[in-house]
């Protein structure tokens, strides 16, 4: 009976993985790769990186496009919107990651129940305090609008939130 239960759980995990990693018809392409642990002494399983791409995001790693020199702040927020969309496809019952910038960034970099990293933990857009930052180095503001809706705000070039140059998605 115990073997049957273990087999059932294993089959459910494989099916869930297939459902989560297959792209929907209108969804961005999703790919996964293992993230190297911070040190060899780390005993926890390695998280996976989920990368999303949707035209006109350049092909390749989404991390390479976030805050890219040839990009825009609006483009950066659109990339993060794709990342949050991938999260929501996985977390159908809970919706968006919640909390402060630091907590959301931790969840998106692999500190979540699935140990999946939607962004590389060492991404240059993450500051020393563990916060996702805009291209001017200012932490982004995540405003929960509902379980499946989130406003993303960059403070813009003046680095002051709620001024005329803010970029909001």
Number of helices: 4
The N- and C-terminal alpha carbons lie at a distance of 51 Å
Poorly predicted ranges: 5-43, 48-60
SSE pattern:
HEEHHHEEEE
**Rg, Cα atoms, Å:** 17 Å
Shape verdict: globular
Helix content: 25-40%
Please tell me the CATH architecture by its name.
Answer: 2-Layer Sandwich
**Biggest sheet character:** 3 strands, mixed
Features:
single chain, 169 residues, alpha+beta, Glycoprotein, Type 4 Pilin, three-stranded mixed beta sheet, three-stranded antiparallel beta sheet, 4 helices, globular
TL;DR?
With 169 residues, this protein is an alpha+beta fold. The protein has helices spanning 2-21, 62-65, 73-90, 101-108; strands at 29-34, 48-53, 116-117, 141-146, 149-154, 167-168. The chain has a single domain, classed as 2-Layer Sandwich (Glycoprotein, Type 4 Pilin), CATH 3.30.700.
Structure description:
The chain is α+β, with helices and mostly antiparallel strands. The protein has one domain (about 30-169): Glycoprotein, Type 4 Pilin (2-Layer Sandwich), CATH 3.30.700. The protein contains four helices and six strands. The chain has helices spanning about 1-20, 60-65, 75-90, 100-110; strands at about 30-35, 50-55, 115, 140-145, 150-155, 165-169. The strands form two sheets. The chain has a three-stranded mixed beta sheet. Strands 4-5-6 form a three-stranded antiparallel beta sheet, with helices on one face. A hairpin with a 2-residue loop joins β4 and β5. The model is unreliable at about 5-45 and about 50-60 (pLDDT under 50).
